[in-house]
Design a protein that fits this description.
antiport; six-stranded parallel β-sheet; NAD(P)-bd_dom_sf; Potassium transporter Kef; mainly alpha; 8 strands; globular; transport; 6% strand; ion transport; two-stranded parallel ribbon; 526 residues
Length: 526
């Protein structure tokens, strides 16, 4: 039977992916169709679904940067939005119940509050995929969106723990000694390599040292996975470990979304109620914009953050799924949430695709603050006397910067979207400033005392380089532009847009290696 489930999930997920929608929408649809055909979930699928949630929480723990979460824009903004959105949805549901909406007739106040809480979340999966496709994961608005999503995940974990119904045993006090094991866990991670042992170590930490240990002392297992991840979040290889688990976690979560579809049969009532929830979604977006803009961010930053978070969440489904298991939420309501999540993705996807066009239109109506009133991370950029700009100061951009600094005697300035990267480069003596070169406002806000003659597009994502190149061409820039890409079709696209030189980084790396070997061994005394 599991083979039927896997086949249905693949076919439906692939079809939705080809429609430029998240595959998880297809997994939900596959579950609904299978349920209509008389299929029921199996213990294997249920177990894999639980493993997916556990691994998800472990990877969230690995990404928890406490310093980022402590900024008021993140912790206060996410908390305020969660409280206000939960209150709004709860009041709206109470009003709908008063209007005799059938789906709400038997729901108590506490159940409507729980439903409002589940609807307050936005999708981490959708946001990360949307930001990655645009190459703006580290942009100002991307950092804000991801930070708020992590705070929402923490709220969900607190709920999952509080509703577990488990009474901790006295031995649970020993868990306060877990931080003492952090150095040992870090050393083991250093020695785990980059292959299957790294994945196995991650699974061991999540399922055995985390979930298994916490369950043994009477505490929600998923909380243990999150805490073990947090212990290693500051380790240099935490990001690599999270990436090594990505495909396994996503595969197990397929079973979770299948389980949601297999749990209840959609009805016209549940579909109609999902449409009502979609009509309430814009208020959730307005609250996002109001809160971000209230921290003195630019209109573009507030609007793009809103569009990235303008949806319902798969984590809301996880909360709803647990509430359904414990009898706190009716099955038809859970189905309505699943349908609303799918519809919100279908609605939000094109909004993010055409976000720049929406901003160009909306900026005419939305008031902008004066430059000196803006948030420090969102103000104008002074390029000084730069003659050469390097956009993207990763490994390639840094190497290009150093080479040009050695061979040319012209002022060079690097631009990067990550504050930690900018600080590190400045400490190493490079002139690097914070900025988002894909931002349509970047070039109009930039102030330069020199005559820029060369721009290097060295951002790791080709789409980001393409967006930056489009912005450069709109400024009537008369100098030279060079760019990097990973694949031939990306090179062709850059050349079609008018870049003066485009380089395949893999081919150039091979050529550089060959030249280095030739120069090194061509001298007998070397």
């Amino acid at each position: 039977m599991e083979l039927v489930f896997i086949s249905a999930a693949f076919i439906s997920g692939y079809a939705l992916m080809r429609c430029h929608l998240p595959p998880l929408v297809g997994f939900l649809i596959a579950g609904f169709v299978l349920h209509a055909m008389g299929y029921q979930s199996t213990p294997v699928i249920t177990q894999l679904a639980d493993l997916g949630v556990t691994l998800l929480l472990f990877t969230i723990g690995l990404k928890l940067d406490v310093k980022t979460l402590l900024t008021k824009e993140i912790w206060f903004g996410a908390t305020a939005h969660n409280v206000l959105t939960t209150a709004f949805f709860t009041l709206a549901l109470m009003g709908l119940k008063a209007l005799s909406i059938p789906m709400l007739s038997g729901m108590s106040m506490s159940e409507m509050l729980l439903l409002g809480f589940a609807l307050s979340f936005s999708s981490t999966v959708f946001a990360i995929k949307a930001l990655q496709e645009k190459g703006e994961l580290n942009a100002t608005y991307g950092t804000l969106a991801i930070g708020m999503l992590i705070m929402q995940d923490i709220f969900a974990v607190i709920f999952l723990t509080a509703t577990s119904g488990k009474t901790p045993e006295l031995t649970a006090l020993l868990l306060f000694g877990l931080p003492l094991l952090k150095p040992l866990l870090g050393k083991l991670l250093d020695k785990a390599g980059h292959g299957e042992m790294l994945v196995l170590y991650a699974v061991f930490l999540a399922l055995v040292a985390g979930a298994g240990l916490f369950e043994a002392v009477g505490i929600k297992p998923d909380l243990g996975a999150l805490i073990l991840g947090m212990l290693l979040a500051s380790h240099p290889r935490a990001s690599e470990m999270a990436k090594s688990l990505f495909n396994m976690k996503e595969l197990f979560l397929v079973c979770f979304f299948l389980n949601i579809g297999l749990s209840e049969q959609p009805t016209w009532q549940s579909f109609s109620f999902a449409l009502i929830l979609m009509l309430l979604l814009p208020i959730k977006g307005v609250l996002y914009y109001w809160i971000v803009n209230g921290f003195r961010y630019r209109v573009r930053t507030a609007l793009f953050t809103t569009l990235t978070l303008f949806n319902f969440s798969e984590f809301g489904l996880i909360v709803g799924g647990l509430a359904y298991k414990t009898g706190l939420m009716p099955g038809p309501i859970l189905v309505s949430i699943a349908i609303a999540v799918s519809l919100s993705f279908a609605f939000s996807a094109p909004l993010n695709t055409f976000s720049n066009q929406l901003y160009s239109w909306a900026s005419r109506w939305l008031p902008e603050r004066a430059p000196d009133e803006l948030h420090p991370s969102d103000q104008q950029i002074n390029l000084g006397d730069a003659s050469i700009l390097v956009l993207g100061m990763g490994r390639i951009g840094s190497g290009a910067y150093d080479e040009l600094a050695t061979t040319h005697h012209q002022p060079i300035v690097g631009i990067d979207t990550r504050e930690d990267s900018v600080s590190r480069h400045q400490q190493e003596g490079r002139r690097v400033i914070l900025g988002d070169a894909t931002d349509p406002d970047f070039w109009s806000r930039a102030v330069s005392d020199g005559n820029i003659s060369l721009i290097l597009l060295a951002m790791p994502h080709s789409h980001a380089n393409t967006l930056a190149l489009e912005q450069i061409r709109q400024t009537q820039f008369s100098g030279k532009v060079a760019a990097i890409a990973k694949y031939q079709d990306e090179l062709d696209q850059l050349k079609a847009l008018g870049v003066d030189e485009a380089f395949n980084i893999y081919q150039e790396a091979g050529s550089g290696f060959a030249r280095h070997v030739r120069d090194r061994f061509s001298h007998p005394d070397s």
